[in-house]
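User: Could you check the structure of this?
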Amino acid sequence: MSRQDLRKLVEEHYDRIFRAARFMCADLAAAEDLVQETFLAAAQSLGRFEGRSSTYTWLYGILLNKFRRWLRHKGRSALSLQRMGEGDTGRGADEVLETDYPRPEQNAERREAAELVRAAIEHLTVEHRSVITLRYIEDMSYDEIAQALNCPVGTVKSRIHYALQRIAKSLPGAGALVE
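Assistant: Sure, the predicted structure tokens are below.
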């Protein structure tokens, strides 16, 4: 793989791979390391890429393997996602002054709801967190997720269903919705 090929691969897929890594581990430094390791592994194995899936799907599979290894190395089964989104308050004055800008209580409710969902997600297994990330963060189809995870579409649907049930059951007042 030439430097130019690697540069193109990184330019095309860095943002999506980083977003997925950041969602998985909620640790900025770890996400950056995982992404770097992912692209390094991709560069070393590009000759073996058969093109049976999209390049992103292939890269995500590498990222998922790196994430699993990172979890084993760290000895963690669940990671805190609470830090995700902290420090993202760099709004410009124009945004703050907009008349259709949500009221403070709406922002507080949204932040609280987001924290509840993050807390629920952190208790999911790697497999369930992966399908939630791919479906709802990366907006991938069931077929694309199945390719990325190298499993049947039925398994993807089952994992998403189970993960959503687990998330819903852990949200206050939502238990009756999933029974």
